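A common beginner's mistake is to predict each chain separately and then try to dock the pieces by hand. The better habit, illustrated here, is to supply every component at once so that their relative placement is modeled jointly.
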Amino acid sequence: MSKILVVDDSNSIRDMVSFTLKSSGYQTVEAHDGQDGLSKAQMGAFDLVITDVNMPNMDGITLCQELRKLTSFQYTPILMLTTESSTDMKQRGKAAGATGWLVKPFNPEKLLATIKRVVR
Amino acid sequence: MSIDLSQFIPTFLEESFEGIELMEASLLTLEQGDAETINAIFRAAHSVKGGAGTFGFNHVTEFTHLVETLLDEMRDGRRDISQKDIEILLNAVDCMRILIEAIRDESTYDESKIAATSKLLAATLNDRSPSDERIDEDIHESSIENLSEEAATTDLEPGLQRWSISFIPEHHLVQTGNDPLLLLNALRELGEMSVLANCNSIPSLTEFDGTELYISWNIILLTAVGKEDIAEVFEWVEDDCQLIISKDEQIDKQSLEITEMTNNVLSESVKEAESPASKIVENTGAENPKVASHAQAHKPKVESSSIRVGVDKVDSLINLVGELVITQSMLSELGNDFDTSKVERLNAGLEQLLQNTKELQESVMRIRMLPISFAFNRFPRLIHDLSKKMDKEIELLISGEQTELDKSVMEQIGDPLVHLVRNAVDHGIEATDVRVANGKPEKGTVSLDAYHQGGSIVIEIKDDGGGIDREAVLAKAKERGLIDESSSLNDAQVYDLLFEPGFSTAKEVSDISGRGVGMDVVKRNIQSLGGRIQIESELGLGSTFKVFLPLTLAILDGQLIKVGREVYIIPLITIVESLQTQESLINRTSGGMVLYRLREDNVPVIPIYKLFNIPAENKEIKNSLLVVVEADGQKVGLMVDDLLAQQQVVVKSLNDNYQQVEGISGATILGDGSVAMILDVPSMITMALKVAKTQQETHIMTEEAMH
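With all components supplied together, the output reads:
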């Protein structure tokens, strides 16, 4: 069973993402900002990280950069949840080491279909 | 698969309201160059927008998008932070609140207001050229989306289309976390596919790097979806590969065959690619469940009452429950074969149980406590709006906003506070020219303060305005027939007239503090919370409204007392001191009232047995026990038979279980199972005054006696 780290400061989005993933048989761990996400990532390995971009304490871009510094997250897929579908945001994400992005709003079906590109 | 999103909507709404409040509060303090604040505002707007989109509230997303764009320009420094823009944003925040409230209440809203504000926002954005681009871009994007959706459906009509895809990844592709195999799997979801892997560039083992990718692919895909959907599968890797997607003109299903198979890594995916074409129909069907889930999302049944609790508070609870369990197991083990030698340990255990229970209770109460900033937060905006409307310059000072208050008290005190603040601005602070003429600073000040005093919380609303004109109030009260022409009242009594129904001193009625309806409601609301309100005022210098509220409505620190065979509870916060009377200090007035000399005060004595007309052991004031209590600035001595323990009691409402009883505020159940009444000190004083009044026609309670 794939284990996914979900990082978002919005409870509702985090609950929704986590619930959707769980109902499809994925295992999830939730974190409420980048800082929290990083410390949870350091405690175990994950098959995928889904993170929001705009968050207090540590944003998604920084989280991504930090994760890539960890050996166990060097090649782990990291997806950014973003409403900013502009190329600028995508470039910044990619530069930070993100694997891909999910443009909000998305529905559960879209989420599940999309993550199949990076996780089993 | 369809997932019901409605369960997340209450959280979304709660979050949105928090976000909106944060936006409002931050906008009011926003200044040029304050990056942190503008970022926080942007983040809040961004979250509302994201959530709204996810849960299908597209009208909220659209509206918030404009707000977000404007904020984004401010954040990036492309736009200066002007007062005008802040006004527009505040206005927009109101609209967001209206929209979210409408979702919560499942009601309609004033669309014209939203539309007008949208227009205003759009116009503001259009003021500058960079913003134009952004809007255009967005419109562009959404139109592409629509187009592609349409394209997908129109493509379906003529049938399947054959695509030839060449996918040549860069060597580093797998290092970004992408997995070509999974991409190909995702592609196969779109239709029938055959794949040719090209392994020519795999180096020899000595040069082989495990983290690099050396394979490229040629894919033939038979599908009903358009090019955009195919490209979308590769959207995360488009910069890390060469991708050519081209349409094969011959629409011939038979030609779809696996021509070559050179890589056994792909054998599994190829096998699955042979699945029947009926899958396509399923897939396209599943592409549009969006519509269905949106419809579901629109019928939220909102649970209005929830509370956010810090993790530390919950942790401490769990900790305490753990200790309770340990104590319990210790006690039950002790009871297994008990003999007198274990009494000491039993006592120690019970002591520990008491301690645990007490801490647990405190922790649970702490969960209900919220900082009063929840109630204060709305005032900066209110003052901002009022000062604009009234054309008065007003500064708001807030202090003590971390003072904690029970959630249920907080919820009910909000409206009375708003009224008091409006009142301070409208009737308190003078017009600017008047202020200047009186040698005061042009800018009026309204201050809000909260602090603990004993077991209650005090909220002060203070203004440096004109103060209350005692004579004007008296004249008005006489005119209205509220008091007799001959009445002589002290200041407190005069100020109290403001709370009489239908009283208003403003020469002209303004739309801000209404028509005098309200102050009476304010007082009633505060009293129903077990609190009271007190006015201090000095003509020309300003007024202070003090609201006293109990910390919580559920539990009370009480002093148990005995009168005859009855046990009563006096709220500990009202008690000044308890003493045994000395004969020399007892005075009797001409009205039959007994006064007890307590240092510089003369305190009227109220024998409880007389007031409630019950038997008592001791009816003699001499050498009796007196509990001196204070309410509304008035001290009285309650004469009791005996002082029992002090303990916390859980308040049960008499109203709910029986009916309102004069002099009693509630009841509780004691340790032995008996019911004890909780004394309502202010109402007892009123009762005693009434009794004294009827006994003697003259006013016994002269000012000297009271103070």
